């Protein structure tokens, strides 16, 4: 918390939190958010007022110094592709069972290497929804949160994309020319969506075709909720 708040102060980033009353306070919480900047985990932690354990890209756990930074901030880098899903489900499930707040960016790495407009949102991967229906937690809140910047600076970092390919050759986004862009927020709105609650009796329905339907519905709910919040903020 102190590191996140200190970093935002040092960068001169101002944030404005909306719908704070929607943040659950007595349950495990899975935070689902859009993702455009390296500052997203930092600003969400500061805005929600609680340490958040974010799942982050595999390469971040391979780069010296960067690995120390992300783990200090509470993130857990994902494993290589063959073990990624299993590792994510296991690690996040343990954290949620300990009543910690876990954060995910279901758009993946695409928005980080290709700059988009502040109100744009990409398609969501469904891994977080499988986690939500499987984790054995008494009451689990899925909390969609929109990060809507209205004053930002886009800079070209000194990191070529193909350098990252050396750390993670499995990521096709890194096998291209150019530089890794960086979005630096100056002012941004943090809009908390309506929580989606999952009860133990509902988790019993996570089987076969019904499981696929539950996962699709939860994914669509979070994607739609965040898209609506971004549209209202623009």
Short description:
With 234 residues, the protein is α/β, with parallel strands linked by helices.
Please give a structural write-up.
With 234 residues, this protein is α/β, with parallel strands linked by helices. The protein is built from nine helices and eight strands. Strands 1, 2, 3, 4, 5, 6, 7 and 8 form an eight-stranded mixed β-sheet that branches. β3, α3 and β4 (76-77) form a beta-alpha-beta unit. α1 (2-11) packs across α2 (40-48), α4 crosses α6 (127-134) and α6 (127-134) crosses α9 (208-233). It is globular, with a radius of gyration of 17 Å. The mean pLDDT is 86.
Keywords summarizing the entry:
Glycerol-3-phosphate (1)-acyltransferase; eight-stranded mixed sheet; acyltransferase; 8 strands; alpha/beta; 39% helix; 234 residues; globular; 9 helices; Plipid/glycerol_acylTrfase
Please give the count of helices.
9
Share of residues in helices: 25-40%
Q: Tell me the CATH topology.
A: Glycerol-3-phosphate (1)-acyltransferase
Number of domains: 1
Can you tell me the residue ranges where pLDDT is under 50 for at least 5 consecutive residues? none
Q: Report the C-alpha radius of gyration, rounded.
A: 17 Å
Protein name: Acyltransferase family protein
Keywords: Acyltransferase, Transferase
GO biological process, one term: phosphatidic acid biosynthetic process
GO molecular function: 1-acylglycerol-3-phosphate O-acyltransferase activity
Topology readout:
Layout: H1 2-11, E1 14-18, E2 28-33, H2 40-48, E3 52-56, H3 66-72, E4 76-77, H4 81-97, E5 101-104, H5 110-113, H6 127-134, E6 140-160, H7 161-167, E7 179-192, E8 196-198, H8 200-203, H9 208-233
Parallel strand pairs: 1-7, 2-5, 2-6, 3-4, 3-5
Antiparallel strand pairs: 6-7, 6-8
Protein name: Acyltransferase family protein
Organism: Lyngbya aestuarii BL J
InterPro entries: Plipid/glycerol_acylTrfase
């Amino acid at each position: 918390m102190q590191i996140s708040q200190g970093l935002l102060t040092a960068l001169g980033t101002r944030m404005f939190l909306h719908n704070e009353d929607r943040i659950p306070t007595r349950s495990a919480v899975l935070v689902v958010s859009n993702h455009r900047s390296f500052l997203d985990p930092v600003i969400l932690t500061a805005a929600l007022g609680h340490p958040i354990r974010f799942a982050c890209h595999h390469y971040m756990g391979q780069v010296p110094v960067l690995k120390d930074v992300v783990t200090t901030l509470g993130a857990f880098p994902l494993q290589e592709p063959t073990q990624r899903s299993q590792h994510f489900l296991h690690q996040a499930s343990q954290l949620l069972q300990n009543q910690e707040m876990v954060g995910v960016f279901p758009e993946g790495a695409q928005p980080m290497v290709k700059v988009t407009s502040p109100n744009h949102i990409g398609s969501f991967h469904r891994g977080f929804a499988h986690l939500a229906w499987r984790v054995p937690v008494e009451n689990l809140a899925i909390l969609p949160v929109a990060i809507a910047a209205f004053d930002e600076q886009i800079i070209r970092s000194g990191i070529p994309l193909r350098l990252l390919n050396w750390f993670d050759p499995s990521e096709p986004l890194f096998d291209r020319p150019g530089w890794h862009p960086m979005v630096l927020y100056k002012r941004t709105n943090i809009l908390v969506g309506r929580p989606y609650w999952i009860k133990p009796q509902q988790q019993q329905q996570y089987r076969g075709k019904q499981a696929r339907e539950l996962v699709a519905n939860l994914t669509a709910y979070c994607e739609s909720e965040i898209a609506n919040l971004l549209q209202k903020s623009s």
